[in-house]
């Protein structure tokens, strides 16, 4: 593995700038074919920061591995390369290779159609625009996986989640990357008040209480959409996975959010 990584770095520094883009992509796709089940290697091959810049690949393999051979629809927000049309796109090609039956969609504020190819399609638009996101969803169908690697601004992360999570397929997975910006003022975050309601991490942490909404002793409580449709959350360094499903297992003792013994019987022991 070390030798392969070193060879890839030599390719990037010496040969890659001299090759036409079409030939570079052909060579990278050939290299990726031999590493198709190894996300860390694919990230290096396609120059994605999901391994090296960050250490996300191992977590993605843990959560996505069982779906790898399935015809998933994956939507990633943030294609990379800023306003340079041909820059970025490494993660899209990484996912296209990792999911051999998958269809990969990317969203960016800039035009990235230069990256459209077999099983990859890009859309240009604002990640906080409900109309835009719903148009994309109507065209591609409910995605099985959404990855927010977009602006990383706290208000954008929260609003995008509020729009897209309900559009996610049943049993889908929603991922938020780079949550470190929750602590950085330039992105609307803060480190001096960790329970600040304006940060993405505070928003996500608050959702964990909803996993247990049937245990609340709050007569008259009306569960939110997120209470009812988030079944698990997994937090890692700068990375969060949120699983969608029906969160209705019921409580052993609590009925209708009333104190024990006071709610209507639900027929559970």
Describe how the helices and strands are arranged.
Blueprint: H1 2-15, H2 21-33, H3 39-45, H4 57-64, E1 73-77, H5 90-98, E2 103-108, E3 120-124, H6 130-140, E4 145-148, H7 154-164, E5 173-177, H8 200-210, H9 225-229, E6 230-236, E7 239-244
Parallel strand pairs: 1-2, 1-4, 2-3, 4-5
Antiparallel strand pairs: 5-7, 6-7
Helix pairs in contact: 3-5, 7-8
What is the CATH superfamily label of the domain at 70-244? Vaccinia Virus protein VP39
Number of helices: 9
How many β-strands, per DSSP? 7
Q: According to CATH, what is the class of the domain at 70-244?
A: Alpha Beta
Stretches where pLDDT falls below 50 for ≥5 residues? none
Largest sheet: 7 strands, mixed
Distance between the termini: 54 Å
Oligomer: single chain
SS content category: alpha/beta
CATH architecture of the domain at 70-244: 3-Layer(aba) Sandwich
Please give the radius of gyration in angstroms. 21 Å
CATH topology type of the domain at 70-244: Rossmann fold
Query: What integer is the average pLDDT?
Result: 90
Strand order of the biggest β-sheet: 3-2-1-4-5-7-6
State the helicity in percent bands: 25-40%
Task: Assign an overall shape.
Answer: elongated
Order of helices and strands: HHHHEHEEHEHEHHEE
> Percent of residues in beta strands?
5-15%
Short account of what is shown:
By secondary structure, this protein is α/β, with parallel strands linked by helices. Helices cover 33% and strands 14% of the residues.
What descriptive keywords fit this protein?
alpha/beta; single chain; seven-stranded mixed sheet; Rossmann fold; 9 helices; 269 residues; 33% helix
């Amino acid at each position: 593995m070390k030798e392969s990584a070193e060879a890839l770095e030599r390719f990037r520094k010496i040969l890659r700038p001299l090759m036409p883009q079409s030939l570079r992509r052909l060579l990278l796709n050939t290299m990726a074919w031999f590493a198709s089940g190894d996300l860390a290697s694919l990230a290096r091959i396609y120059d994605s920061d999901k391994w090296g810049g960050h250490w996300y690949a191992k977590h993605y393999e843990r959560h996505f591995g069982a779906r790898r051979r399935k015809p998933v629809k994956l939507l990633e927000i943030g294609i990379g390369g800023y306003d340079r049309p041909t820059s970025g796109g490494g993660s899209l090609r990484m996912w296209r290779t990792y999911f051999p039956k998958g269809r990969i969609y990317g969203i960016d504020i800039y035009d990235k159609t230069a990256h459209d190819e077999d099983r990859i399609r890009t859309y240009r638009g604002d990640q906080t625009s409900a109309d835009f996101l719903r148009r994309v969803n109507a065209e591609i169908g409910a995605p099985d996986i959404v990855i927010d690697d977009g602006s990383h601004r706290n208000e954008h992360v929260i609003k995008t989640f509020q729009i897209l999570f309900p559009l996610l397929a049943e049993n889908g997975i929603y991922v938020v990357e780079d949550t470190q910006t929750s602590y950085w003022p330039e992105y609307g975050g803060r480190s001096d008040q960790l329970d600040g309601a304006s940060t993405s991490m505070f928003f996500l942490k608050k959702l964990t209480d909803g996993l247990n909404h049937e245990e609340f002793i709050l007569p008259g409580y009306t569960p939110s959409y997120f209470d009812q449709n988030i079944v698990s959350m997994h937090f890692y360094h700068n990375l969060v996975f949120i699983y969608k499903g029906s969160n209705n297992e019921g409580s052993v003792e609590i009925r209708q959010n009333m104190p024990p013994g006071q709610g209507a019987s639900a027929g559970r022991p």
